[in-house]
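User: My collaborator sent over this chain with a note saying "see what the structure looks like." That's all I know about it. Can you take a look?
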Amino acid sequence: MTKAEPDEKLLKDLRAAADRLIAGTALRSSGKLTVSDLAAEAGIKRWVLTHKHPELMHAFQAEFKTLGQVSAPVQTALDRATQLEKDLTKVRQDKRRLKELVDTYAAVITELTDELIQAQQQRDEALAELARRHHDAVAVLADHRPTRRANDTFTR
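Assistant: Without extra context I'll predict from the sequence alone. Here is the result:
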């Protein structure tokens, strides 16, 4: 039993479907360069290609294989994924650099805080020493102040 030759309409529909898949302008399928998508794009059942006209299936598979099995939308998606991976690498590098910068700032802040605390302690000790000396001086003056008697009056 010989296989029936495909009619002109089927050939025309398959060629138009293949061209749309290759161009990335699929209307009825996901746009992949596969026999299933070719059949869906042509509006026929997959078995028409796989069982009734396998020679057409093999011819289109060979054509798709020479294109690298990548349709325009798939290639666009792959290009976008590649660009996103590059962007992610750059963002990760930026994050590492910023983390190092933040760590440096944190170390500087810690060091400055320690120096501030030490300076405040020195200030407080100096003020305490000054108050102690001042208190001693006031106490000495208080000892030399004449005492007031009950009958004393001051005149100006």
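A starting point for your reply to your collaborator: The CA atoms of residues 22 and 97 lie 44 Å apart.
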